[in-house]
Amino acid sequence: MIRKNPRGDQPIVHESAFVDPTAILCGRIVVHENVFIGPYAVIRADEVDETGHMEPITVGAHSNIQDGVVIHSKSGAAVTIGERTSIAHRAIVHGPCTVGPDVFIGFNSVLFNCTIGEGCVVRHNAVVDGCDLPPGFYVPSTQRIGPRTDLSTIPKVSPKASEFSEDVARTNNTLVQGYKHIQNEL
Fold this sequence. Notes:
Blueprint lengths: L1 E2 L8 E2 L4 E2 L4 E4 L1 E3 L4 E2 L4 E4 L11 E3 L4 E2 L4 E4 L5 E3 L4 E2 L4 E8 L4 E2 L4 E7 L4 E2 L4 E3 L2 E2 L4 E2 L4 E2 L13 H24 L4
Parallel strand pairs: 1-4, 2-5, 3-6, 4-7, 5-8, 6-9, 7-10, 8-11, 9-12, 10-13, 11-13, 12-14, 13-15, 14-16, 15-17, 15-18, 16-19, 17-20
Keywords: Transferase
GO molecular function, one term: transferase activity
InterPro entries: CA_gamma_LbH, Gamma-CA, Hexapep, Trimer_LpxA-like_sf
């Protein structure tokens, strides 16, 4: 469902993107080309700051927002999802937040008030809260990264983890074409 927020902002979805009929996109959202938004995902841009201003939630080209993902933002802050990025099942991305290009965010992970650099991998059930993760870092499953985390203890992304991330992005790009093909049958 694509709908306006109380302020009247309506999502802008590129014609080549696929949004599952059960997903909800509400408000000031920009979805670029060849994006996959899976079943029961919720992307909601409806809060404003103290002056009534709101930044958009933007999903970059060739990215995928998988089943049950929630993307929202506090007080009208921006959320940006980079190109070729995968946000896996039931993850929460809460702005203010910037997720760079070629990133993988694992199942049930939570991002809040952070920046995730290009090529990072955040595995399943991890939390990144209140800090900036430089490009190419690997956050293991269930790990919590915050402002007091010594980033020198965080490993770099291995070639195997990078290949996995690329494969997930490729697979979901293929799904866009398949679902667009059968869209009128749904």
